[in-house]
Design brief:
5-stranded antiparallel β-sheet, Phosphatase 2c, domain 1, Jelly Rolls, alpha+beta, single chain, elongated, 6-stranded antiparallel β-sheet
């Protein structure tokens, strides 16, 4: 027989003497023999397993508790209501008082739990009209899924299962200290986040901030305030587990980075372990979640041991921060272990009292003490600095003044060097040449500008030189535009070397016959090689790009070399264009350029202007892009547009360049303007003849291949005109026929006249060279052959002819070099093989 417990005053303890029966039973009497006795809550697992419960559906049990209420206690209810407090019920529950339902949680539909009902601190008001003097009963119907926890807690957070006055039970829900601590820890977390963002290298601030914020969220999820969100109890439980699994991991990472300044392998493994548990929670049932919680609970003991090891090791190393934290750490660790053991229910009477949130507060005081100590240390350093600030400022100012004076003195010496260099460069950088045939204009603006005493000067690597020389009794304008590698003094040094060597070569040309007796191609070649030999001596530390040219004043023929300088521009009839299509030579000073020489030619007409300029004309700063990166002009055609816009005027051209973009490099431009009709074009034209040439009769003789008749016809025509007024085309055709007919002296005489008038005709120069070799005029043959080689470096017949000519004057080395070039162009050339046989039997060079 069940014996109720007599009660004489509220609260009435309901933790002992319950009855238990399988299924939902509201009508079965208290005396029924099917009830099983429970001495005390929580429900033992043995009591549940004693029932034959279905395996594939939810379980349901009914619990019964009777108690007595006296007359005096009923009278107390006149001032206050009565309620029952359940510390925790799981899962779906219904509560009946004297047969009337007073509360429920969760729901079941079609034999399945569709909403969980487990909840902490359930307070259910008891209707006053249901309270009886004497025996009263409470029935609790619990349903749960297989494998889940089933229980009615006797106590939770030190609040037992009781029937008490409504006001006292409601006081259990008062959680001001808990919520205050939750907010405090959240604030501390954000505060350490701020530290981390200011100093990302201090990673321990990040981990402690995460630890503190997660712990704040955990406290909130364990409070009754979370029920105001209306979350599903299972979802709420999963969030709680996901948070708590990572709290220990973040704390371990904090200890590692705070005391060791690195993350250990153990901490990395524990972090990985916590992440795996966290990732499994969202997809698990309540039973699996409880299993994962148990795994984590046992892992906490490993966490506790390793964190204690870190702290002890820091103490052994006499770490001051460890000494300041040790008390708070021990209290935090002890309170955490106590709560863990209580939640695992390993010891009877021990429960989770929620001590950890207070233990962390003590630990946080240690952190605050460390921060305060660091603040005081910095404050003391600032005070010390302030006390000595005036003296230090004066000392610092004095040192800065001394340094500034030294810099000024060095600057004066540097500007003096710049000034002396500019004085040497100025006489070299001259281009004021003007005659009846051609006008030369120039512009030079160096990037480096400076002041020395009362002078304002500039210095750089650009140079423009122009002069007049005579070659083979013909007047030429010679010019060079150079851009030496490097800025300021380095560039100026290169320009100085270029100017001195070039001026020296021009001076020798004016006085030494071996120089002024050279044709223009050979003169350019020799001048280039002399510059190349000088700059090669600097082993690549001083390079220079140049355009080196000669203009035949009477014929208007431009001979020039371009060594990696911007392309030469022609301005003719309002249109600007390049007269070069590809790069032939690298900068002067790079070894191996001799074999790549090529002299280019161009015919100038009256009114033509040639513009030669350094790369400063193209390297213009156009602005900056969105990322702040400077935008430099890369379109070399823009220079052509500026020439056309300026209509060939040099001053307007410079202004147009500066308006288009900002100069980033030295800029030099030389303009050559051809003023008169070329003399070769004033020769007697066909219109001045009394007959048409070439006519049908001439073509008829050519088709018949009767050279004697052809010569006879041309000589008859020659009698009708004077030698001086003979058209160039007539001379050329007559010379070609003489050459084919074997009248070499007559052909040579005409070829030499034509070469002076038409030096661009490589065929005539080559034919004249062949004739000289036939007459054993080997030096004249070599000179003409070299001119052809410079103009057409891959003209195979000329290379073979020149190799043979050098062999005939016993210059073996030159012959070998030319034969090597033939082998590259035509390895099976039969003439070259014959020359090689002669070479093997010839005597060495003289």
């Amino acid at each position: 027989m069940f014996i109720s417990t007599p009660v004489f005053a509220f609260p009435i303890d309901l933790t002992e003497n319950w009855k238990l029966v399988s299924g939902r039973n509201l009508d079965i009497s208290v005396e029924d023999i099917s009830w099983k006795e429970l001495k005390s809550l929580p429900i033992p697992k043995e009591a549940i397993s004693s029932f034959s419960l279905p395996k594939d559906t939810i379980y349901t049990l009914t619990l019964l508790k009777t108690f007595e209420i006296s007359v005096q206690e009923v009278q107390e209810l006149a001032l206050d209501g009565l309620s029952v407090h359940f510390p925790l019920l799981s899962n779906v529950y219904e509560v009946f008082f004297n047969g009337e339902k007073i509360g429920e949680g969760g729901s079941i539909l079609n034999g399945k739990i569709v909403r969980n009902g487990f909840k902490r601190h359930i307070i259910l008001p008891i209707p006053e009209n249901k309270v009886k003097i004497g025996t009263n009963e409470i029935r609790v119907i619990l349903s749960w899924n297989p494998g889940e926890e089933l229980d009615v807690y006797a106590s939770f957070n030190s609040a037992p299962l009781v029937v008490d006055l409504q006001s006292r039970n409601l006081s259990i829900l008062s959680e001001r200290p808990r919520l205050i601590l939750s907010f405090l820890y959240l604030f501390v977390g954000f505060y350490h986040f701020l530290f981390y963002f200011k100093r990302p290298k201090q990673r321990y601030d990040l981990f402690f901030g995460l630890f503190s914020m997660f712990f704040s969220v955990y406290i909130y999820l364990r409070s009754n305030a979370v029920y105001e969100l209306g979350l599903d109890p299972l979802l709420q439980m999963k969030l709680e587990y996901m948070v708590i699994f990572n709290i220990t991991a973040f704390f371990l990472l904090f200890l590692d980075t705070f005391f060791e300044s690195k993350i250990s392998l153990v901490s990395r493994f524990y972090q990985f372990f916590a992440l795996i548990l966290t990732s499994l929670i969202p997809f698990s049932s309540r039973a699996v979640c409880l299993f994962l919680l148990q795994i984590w609970q046992f892992s906490v003991f490993v966490f506790a041991l390793y964190s204690l090891f870190i702290m002890v090791r820091a103490l052994i190393r006499k770490n001051r921060d460890a000494i300041r934290l040790i008390v708070g750490f021990i209290i935090l660790l002890a309170s955490g272990i106590a709560d863990l053991l209580g939640s695992m229910q390993l010891f009877s009477g021990l429960e989770n009292y929620g001590l950890l949130k207070y233990g962390f507060f003590v630990f946080e005081l240690g952190i605050v003490f460390i921060l305060a100590n660091r603040f005081l240390k910095v404050h003391n350093q600032v005070e010390e600095l302030n006390l000595n600030l005036d003296r230090k400022v004066k000392e610092r100012t004095s040192r800065l003044q001394d340094t500034l004076n030294q810099i000024r003195e060095l600057k004066i010496h540097q500007d003096g060097d710049y000034f002396l260099t500019s004085l040497i460069l100025d006489p070299l950088n001259r281009y004021n040449v003007r005659n009846d045939f051609i006008a030369v204009e120039g512009f030079s603006r160096q990037k480096k500008r400076f002041e020395f005493k009362q002078w304002k000067k500039e210095i750089g690597g650009d140079i423009v030189i122009a002069d007049e020389i005579v070659l083979k009794d013909r007047k030429y304008l010679v010019f060079v535009n150079g851009d030496a590698m490097g800025k300021s003094i380095q560039g100026a040094s290169g320009a100085l070397v270029l100017g001195v060597v070039f001026r020296s070569f021009v001076s020798r040309t004016k006085t030494v016959s071996s120089y002024y007796s050279q044709p223009p191609e050979l003169w350019l070649n020799e001048c280039f090689l002399e510059l190349q030999n000088i700059f090669e001596a600097f082993d690549g530390s001083m390079l220079v790009s140049v355009v080196l040219g000669l203009v035949d004043l009477k014929s208007g023929i431009l001979f020039f070399l371009n060594a990696e300088h911007p392309p030469t521009v022609l301005y003719r009839n309002g249109i600007a264009s390049f007269i070069e299509d590809k790069l032939e030579l690298r900068k002067i000073g790079i070894t191996g350029l001799e074999s790549k020489m090529k002299v280019k030619t161009f015919f100038l007409e009256k009114g033509d202007s040639i513009f030669v300029g350094s790369d400063g004309r193209d390297d213009l700063l156009l602005g900056v892009d969105q990322g702040g990166v400077p935008v430099i002009n890369e379109d070399e055609l823009q220079f052509l547009k500026r020439v056309e816009e300026s209509e060939g005027d040099l001053d307007l051209l410079v202004k147009g360049i500066q308006n288009y973009g900002e100069l980033t490099d030295d800029l030099s431009i030389v303009k050559l303007s051809y003023l008169k009709e070329p003399v070769r074009l004033k020769s007697v034209s066909d219109n001045d003849l009394s007959f048409k040439f070439p006519g049908e009769t001439y073509f008829k003789h050519l088709r018949s291949e009767n050279l004697e008749d052809t010569i006879y016809h041309l000589e008859n025509l020659t009698n009708k005109i004077s030698r001086e007024t003979m058209p160039p085309i007539f001379k050329k055709e007559l010379a070609k026929v003489y050459y084919k007919a074997g009248k070499y002296r007559e052909a040579l005489s005409l070829f030499e006249e034509l070469i002076s008038e038409f030096p661009e005709d490589v065929e005539m120069i080559f034919n004249a060279s062949l004739i000289h070799k036939r007459f054993k005029h080997f030096h004249q043959a070599i000179e003409l052959g070299e001119r052809v080689l410079l103009r057409e470096p891959e003209f195979l017949d000329n290379i073979v002819h020149l190799a043979e000519s050098y062999l005939l004057v016993e210059k073996r080395e030159a012959t070998v070099k030319l034969l090597e070039k033939v082998d590259r162009l035509d390895p099976n050339n039969s003439n070259a093989k014959k020359i090689r046989i002669q070479l093997d039997s010839s005597i060495p060079d003289r």
